[in-house]
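Progress report, Aim 2. The chain analyzed during this reporting quarter is listed below.
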Amino acid sequence: MTSIVLFGPPGAGKGTQAARITDSTGLPQVSTGDMLRAAVKNGTETGMAAKQYMDAGQLVPDSIIIDLIKERVLEKDAQNGLMFDGFPRTVPQAEALAEITEVSHVISIEVPDERIVERICGRYSCASCGAVYHDTFNPTSTEGVCDQCGS
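Predicted structure tokens for the chain:
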């Protein structure tokens, strides 16, 4: 089994690099942010538990995040491993991940602070599907229209 973890600050390019690794390895990409948004949208028990924290602008507790990951690693497409994008973020999450699955590679992405600020300042996402764009580096093909879902 090959499971890869990408670390780095917001704006470092974890999602971009995870997508590239996923394309070349076939490992499913796991983004806890995407998983949380989907769980809330689908009205799952875990999603509803997370929603109260998300709506209040608070971090979702480790226990909820870990439950999401436990569910994810049991899915059929995860049998050969996963590409973790920004997870784990805390020591308890790292300890839980070590109990849940074997991690074969850990990659730390380091980017100068000025570059991170530049990346974050132009970032926006689709309210419908969560696809992420940037004014300069990754704009939508048609202004105001999501390339992924057409919203």
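Helices lie at 14-25, 32-41, 45-55, 62-73, 91-100, 113-121. The first strand starts at residue 4 and ends at 7. These observations will guide the mutagenesis work planned for the next reporting period.
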